[in-house]
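for the writeup, i need someone to sanity check this before i put it in the appendix. the sequnce is what the collaborator sent (i think, or maybe the updated version? ugh). structure was predicted straight from it, no edits. if anything looks off just tell me and ill rerun, i have time this weekend
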Amino acid sequence: MVERRPDYYTQFHCLGGACPDTCCRDWSVVLDEDALADYAAAPAPLGERIARNLATDGDGDVCFCLDEAGLCALLTPGGLCAIQKDWGEGHLCAHCAAYPRFTEEYGCLTETALAVSCPEAARLLLEAPRFSLVETYDGMDDLPFDGVDPGLLSMLEGSRAQILALLDGGEETIWDRLRAMLGRAKTLETSIFAADSRRDYPFPPPPIPGLFQASAVWLLDLLSELEPLRLDWPNLLRERAQQLAALSEREYAALRIRYAQANPRWERQLTNLACYLVFRHWHKAVNDDALYGRAAFVCAACAVLYHLSLFQPGEEAALWTRFSREVEHNEDNLGELIWALSEPDALPPPLTI
């Protein structure tokens, strides 16, 4: 089996109470049977507190309750989980203990990374000299899981390696490299559909915004219509869309120049982000063949976060974290965005600056 992870993976340490945006918020944490059995034996008064703050969701899963502010009921004023603080980290449930680490398994391949929905994980990616992977091989040529097309997975493996090399190298701008990635994804997905007569690929593929002002406004508006975790997120997107739309061509160019002066590493940071997103999402096309939509999602994420950063230089990590929580961690939002970016008539025509 092959195992991969980013080279900064082992540098991660939870900030605990010093975290600027706790993960103990907004999400309903599903508890497995082992965690529930463990909590039933929790010492008093922690056990009583846990029992008071368990609820069953609409799917019948048992979760920790959230308060009116969306905070987990077991979060202490110091920003630590009461279970971890009063009983020990070893008693955290599987979800809480693993976060922000996530693992994708394909039988013959295991990939682990840090979700940028965590502020510290976002900072590590933001500050990394480049996005590099560490790979190990145990000498065993395992087969893919049942239901995973070996030929498709092999194609995704080879193409993703090429895309990561494309994104990280060359003298072209990040926007040119993203456009090149999108063109390759179109060609690859066309070949996938050509081998499957049950599917129709939309020709021609829609233009995906890179640096274009009007397209960025459209994307911000699109994202603002998705189901939010926190209402301040769509409000921010709408506000930034309005501000961006009101800028003249000269004002827009000046804003970009000021941002480049304030953050000289912005292009390296966006390159790292694009590589992270490709690493995380590219292979998921093995489940639905939607490679072009995922490549378009990477382009859109970079364009949106760049334009948000124009108005908030120095707050890139916070913006990446919010975007990831609102989109990457919501399967409905992510699927809706990928679908919208795959529609042939969804986006405005390409504009020049």
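Residues 127 and 269 are 7 Å apart (CA to CA). DSSP finds 15 helices and six strands in the chain.
thx in advance!!
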